Amino acid sequence: MFYPSDRVLVAIMNSPRDLTIARDEGWYRIPERHAPDSATEAVVLAFYFTRAFGDEKWAIHYYAPVEGHELVRRGNLFPDQPDHPRARDPYYKLQLGPLLKLDDPIPSLRWRRITFIESTWDRFIAAEEINDLYATGADGLYVTLKEDRLHPEREFLIRDGDAEYVVDLAIPCRDGTLVIALGERAAPAGALRDPDLDAVRRAVAARGGAQPARPPS
Q1: Do both 100 and 200 map to the same domain?
Q2: What's the predicted TM-score (pTM) here?
């Protein structure tokens, strides 16, 4: 049905009503100003459930093929809300095929802020958890750290005073978070730059050891 390199976009599903729309009416909306590059190129749209979904929260359970898209105003999507403050804002309306359920959900093993994840079909069907979906240059080191049971997080948001950084890799430790930056990507002071595995192990040990990942409550 899908090719390994087909683009998969993971989007946030904040409310059961939006899931009902996707299932019964066959569409999902993304504000144009917040849309990722792949919003109009995705072949598959998958949904990451937030707390609103109770026992199914913090995981991907459903996906759907994308059959087309158009740019419309929010007021056209919800004509019963003409006075909504974003009624005139442009949104991508992704037209969806049947909603499909994964045999094995893809969970987030830690709470983290997710907006969109751009992935591929081969990663999506092989993923055991959210971090496996990211398609960045950190693949090799991420796999090595995961196999070493250091519980790395990918594309992780770090706040450093008034600044915010999304870093390639982060390892939550018992005494702080170890930040790993690859290439020229911006990172907070003290981040490890292009380290080898031994350097990461020493840095993790100095921070009291890695914190095992577990599903957020």
Answers
A1: no
A2: 0.90
